[in-house]
Amino acid sequence: MAGSARDPQQAGREHLGARAGAPGRPGAAGAGARYTARLLIGCADRPGIVAAVSGFLYEQGANIVSSHQYSSDPTGGRFFLRTEFVLDGLAAPGTERARFERHFRERVAERFGMEWEVRYRGQRRRLAILVSRHDHCLMDLLWRWRRGELDGDVVSVISNHRDLEGEVRGAGVPFHHVPVPRGAKEGAEARMLELLGAERGVELVVLARYMQILSGAFLERVRVPVINIHHSFLPAFAGAQPYARAHERGVKLIGATAHYVTEELDAGPIIEQGVERVDHSQSPSELERVGRDIERVVLARAIALHLDDRVIVDGRRTIVF
Amino acid sequence: MAGSARDPQQAGREHLGARAGAPGRPGAAGAGARYTARLLIGCADRPGIVAAVSGFLYEQGANIVSSHQYSSDPTGGRFFLRTEFVLDGLAAPGTERARFERHFRERVAERFGMEWEVRYRGQRRRLAILVSRHDHCLMDLLWRWRRGELDGDVVSVISNHRDLEGEVRGAGVPFHHVPVPRGAKEGAEARMLELLGAERGVELVVLARYMQILSGAFLERVRVPVINIHHSFLPAFAGAQPYARAHERGVKLIGATAHYVTEELDAGPIIEQGVERVDHSQSPSELERVGRDIERVVLARAIALHLDDRVIVDGRRTIVF
Amino acid sequence: MAGSARDPQQAGREHLGARAGAPGRPGAAGAGARYTARLLIGCADRPGIVAAVSGFLYEQGANIVSSHQYSSDPTGGRFFLRTEFVLDGLAAPGTERARFERHFRERVAERFGMEWEVRYRGQRRRLAILVSRHDHCLMDLLWRWRRGELDGDVVSVISNHRDLEGEVRGAGVPFHHVPVPRGAKEGAEARMLELLGAERGVELVVLARYMQILSGAFLERVRVPVINIHHSFLPAFAGAQPYARAHERGVKLIGATAHYVTEELDAGPIIEQGVERVDHSQSPSELERVGRDIERVVLARAIALHLDDRVIVDGRRTIVF
Amino acid sequence: MAGSARDPQQAGREHLGARAGAPGRPGAAGAGARYTARLLIGCADRPGIVAAVSGFLYEQGANIVSSHQYSSDPTGGRFFLRTEFVLDGLAAPGTERARFERHFRERVAERFGMEWEVRYRGQRRRLAILVSRHDHCLMDLLWRWRRGELDGDVVSVISNHRDLEGEVRGAGVPFHHVPVPRGAKEGAEARMLELLGAERGVELVVLARYMQILSGAFLERVRVPVINIHHSFLPAFAGAQPYARAHERGVKLIGATAHYVTEELDAGPIIEQGVERVDHSQSPSELERVGRDIERVVLARAIALHLDDRVIVDGRRTIVF
After folding, report:
1. Which of the residues A25, D116, D149, D225 has an alpha carbon 20 to 30 A from that of B57?
2. pTM of the full predicted structure?
3. Which residues of chain C have pLDDT under 70?
4. Catalytic annotation on B135?
């Protein structure tokens, strides 16, 4: 009896098949429509960029489905563009795609000194989740993945504890136990880099309440984006036991922030945030419970936005289209 | 290999054991403290009620841990009280509890014509979940139950479809398939009443996206509270395909309402509500996705509030302490 | 002694002078940057529109500052564009503007069958406010106008009561008392049309808690957009005394909706919405108080969005860029 | 010509006369009902407190209208009670009130070592507002006061600038210009203490965007609560130009916190907080505009809560009933 709980990857595929439309994202903009490919551009702003890009797409026979642009400053700032278009010739992998990209580079990108990328519909990215003992973000992501809410695939879960092994394997995902003994972080990180890289070709690392601090060397070598979730309060409380301290100060709002990980702890570019109201009668453990509900939703939204290529990093901040 | 995924009930118990404190609830007030019993009262308001109740508890040696009261109108209205107290003699089942309740009835309750109830710590209620094909509320409730967030136990899931059987059995909960063929609702409801009543002693029925309308006869015979979740919009859209219609009207907020079920469809006393912001670029299916995230949280909160005896029905509305 | 309270129009101008930048809007996107003009387009979607428009702007020497587009459906749907650009030659009124518009019509607009409009920076629109006795929306709008938050000018307040005459005249705005005696609505509306039209050249009518229903004939003859604010609940309560009825039902969220007025009462395209949490302990009059705080903010946002040309009506709904 | 704008104090009184009910508060609980007096208690928690207080009130013939209690810890914690009751004999000032208070002290308060206070309906408190140049909080408070939303009276506005003098005098409130030249803070604070104390009998000081830091000596000598409002972000940004820094970091939520002022800058007990969503396209000045809308509402709520005696300070945090 192969119920969906037994073969979740299959279930995931079925869900995806059922969705005529796009991967979409919770709480955000416009994925509903069909598209063939997505063009992402960043360059120094100057007149003529949109004319050149849209002119090129028109000549190629593309029909623009959605387009978002932003300039940090029209004079001397940076210009960002995300556009989705339909172009039947690019629907299947092959030489047409290479030709399209070469022409774009030669006719447009080089002229404006663009950083650019074309991502074709159906190119699902590979995610690894790092987790310690808290299961709420992990379980939520596995559930969303299985029902087809994410435009990517969870290919690996790595944990420094064995607590969640059963849940992960039950969802049909490989589980790797990489303990981090005191003084042996270097070796643990090396093992994780192996698991993420050669073995799995991971394209996004999600810290779903992973309680170890990743070293600068790890972040440099991993070479893919790393997204973290952490609690946030008004005002902020640094250090240990933040919920206990928030309770002591009687905060009225608690929240969570999802951000890209940089060497600067918890200060990387913010992708998404959320808050909930609390009151004096809630104990620290109840605040944590509220915090969990916020964390899982904020993290899931951040990941969905990233997978939809809606998040553009501009120095220390993000542009979210 | 007894991973938590294989023996969730065990996992649930471990979690419960780990929580030194109380059942608690997400997003709401003060369960953190220890208590022995909870006293719930409703009666016509008049002077002296609080003095009588608190005097009685003091004489019995009880230490009040928390107390909430509300009067719909001090003159001619209805008075409601919820108080939690510590009284060591009542910690274990036995004759002390019977004696306490008899004395309360004789010395206080009869004098004020009270409806009242004592609920002792550890008396976990038995829940049944009715569901059709949407899994988001069901999965969320099973997860919360297993990690000990609910002061009650999910003892049965009943569905008119087999889609979610694997998920339910995987969580260690009995699954009952009760199809509702056209024209045969009476028989289906009779079967469900058997499953809820004699066989299971269910004390709360949760409609976690159960898409059949329950008959007035069923509601009368089930004799336990039934909680439902449904989408809500500003303004409201009655009828079929509400998300499509909300999209057509360009609503900027979508939400969900959890309420007790009465014969008046979707108009029973409201327990909890939530909303999220949306915009024109989101397709109807994306609105549904946002709606799912709201629904599961609002339903979970409503159930936690109910199980903590924080919801008091006063005619067509609720008092939520 | 010319304190700002005595000469608010002067104060308003000072504020405007002080703002180096743009009109901006509360709670919404990107007005901070300088721009010369704004181009607004609506037409049947088909390939090449963006290429044609951006190519034209580039040829004219314009530098695009911001651009938003939306297609209700790339195949057979409607396309909308809002773009702001810098083009020094158009900074002052004169023949250059006429030439620019003629060229755009001949080279782009006619080819795609566009509805289109160019609005130049500094072309402030003229608003009239209709109000009855509730002052919260009126006072808030007058304050925002005086401090330069609105890219438009309040040129007239019309009321069916005299209650707020002092407040309005104190803010330096003409006040017109147009009573609406039973059975004499037609005459009253005719007088209002005179006041709005010939005398004042009003370009936007705001119903800031105006408690009379405007006739279909009035709406047809006024020929400018009319924005209304009204309370909203989950679920909705039609009819009289909505706050009392919301209290009876124990709603947990109350809100407000700002929309364009159509003949279909309170069902015109929604511009903006907001909600706040309430609980059982709040009386109907306290719910109204919360409602007032929501109404004034939601109405102000809707008006700012409209004046920034960010709201596009697409049938029964709005696109808000 | 006695329009309300010309004689706002009169207008204020008219509004109050019109409100049959209570002062109430926006966004919070239960002021609608009539009451004669409010009893506020704080003491070490131990059994019998509620029995003693409610027994006493019952003997005096009081009818309890509302009651809230909280214990920071039933064993060794602190107990707080706020109860409103009707007792006709206390409706007018006189010997009955003195007798009631003496009996309460002798029979209840001394026995439990209570800090306590009785506040009679109609005893409106006297507020002073300190402000610099930003007018949004000031204007909002004056408007709320004039329409009767606050259970207190604004008797004085003090500013270190003359900018808002016209607005304040126009609202019928005395305005005092107390400049704070560099190096002369001591003298300025001495003058403010005179204005607040002997001359005006002020019972609450509101810092409505007062940009000077009050010295510890001032706070010690002012002897009445001081409430401040300031911006808050997730995460927090200390130092100058917080909105510019929030924009640089791309925050997605900005907010405001109202708190009692202590010597520890911006770290006093939090009364109320609020947030709004923002995005990358909003300039720092637009973030400030959103911030203003939050600040005025959060500050107004905090003041209303304080005036309704709903805020109890327990060390570094507040209990808000």
Report:
1. D116
2. 0.88
3. 1-33, 199, 235-239
4. no
